[in-house]
């Protein structure tokens, strides 16, 4: 994969979208999303991230228009106002904010960093991560780790599981010590919810999971769990529970209205994505259903307590963003410079060979004379390209990509109608070269008066 291009991103997240919309945007798993994006015209790299609160995709293309086109149908069933399209620089900053927890429903929560890393590994398995996304994603992970190591952004942060428990404690009529609770799901989110319930000494705590062995493992790990059951026993357990927290990874509803017909007063808090509880269950008498959207009020209070840490992380992101952008710019300039020197080196080798052959025809050359000719050619290349090299690097630093293109056309390293091809890089065009220099090269322009006199002197010797 070429070390060039522009990153485009699209996001459907809790700050703009509802749970239903995020669910619609997550209808395919990340592997399927990445595979589909890689098949689009012009896409060289792809990455996707799906969590309870967001569904996102990123692509690398030569041109930003191609990137936007590749992502246009990412969430066809979601209203436009819930879909955020991001250009290259927005994407770089957004990835850092996501990994550091600033974009999470629970400000500073730690799970997102692991989810980003898991998404990276999934994309790598499909050979979808190239130089552009590698730099962007590794920088995001670095910022996420720095944020948690150097600031208090995650101190006192609640998980969605503990936020659900806080919500329940605020709304349940009975004291928490008298509540019969059921957690459906023994994965990462279910484990967090189970631990949160155990920490407040809930009256009775049952864990249900499709794989009973995993539920039993969680029951052994968390003191306070009274029983572990399979989903086959879910109907009876729902009738007994006052509080139910669902957190499975099932693509289908796990809890249906039929299972709750005679459940009586029951609060269900669904923190799964896609949702575990059929929304129609909320129509039943005595049944209250909450989803992730309802946790906003709980998490807002924790966000207020960490505003200072969030400001520190914002400053950190500004700093790391500038470093990443500078690195991209330097790479783009160096890529153009390398191509320019490569073209010049090709001409140099050919012209030196031609000159040495002519001189050999006039008499044997000494090794010292050969070295003089070759040194002359090297010096010419270095001196001729020194100014445009500096100009290219200065222009990249100033986002002046017009100067870069003009310089490349002025020195015409591609010689003739094979000219440079232009494609959009991170902040402007990147340059690629191909083809061979034609035979009608203007040697006078390349050699100049001084090198010609030196060659003539060598011939006289």
From TrEMBL:
Composition bias type Basic and acidic residues, residue spans: 443-455
Pathway entry: Porphyrin-containing compound metabolism; protoporphyrin-IX biosynthesis; 5-aminolevulinate from L-glutamyl-tRNA(Glu): step 1/2
Low complexity composition bias: residue spans: 419-430
Binding site for NADP(+): 185-190
Site residues, Important for activity: 94
Domain Tetrapyrrole biosynthesis glutamyl-tRNA reductase dimerisation: 312-412
Quinate/shikimate 5-dehydrogenase/glutamyl-tRNA reductase domain residues: 176-298
Catalytic activity: (S)-4-amino-5-oxopentanoate + tRNA(Glu) + NADP(+) = L-glutamyl-tRNA(Glu) + NADPH + H(+)
Oxidoreductase among keywords: yes
Active site: 52
Subunit structure: Homodimer.
Similarity comment text for this entry: Belongs to the glutamyl-tRNA reductase family.
Name under which the protein is recorded: Glutamyl-tRNA reductase
Natural source organism: Haloferax volcanii (strain ATCC 29605 / DSM 3757 / JCM 8879 / NBRC 14742 / NCIMB 2012 / VKM B-1768 / DS2)
Lineage, top ranks: Archaea, Methanobacteriati, Methanobacteriota, Stenosarchaea group, Halobacteria
Record gene name: hemA
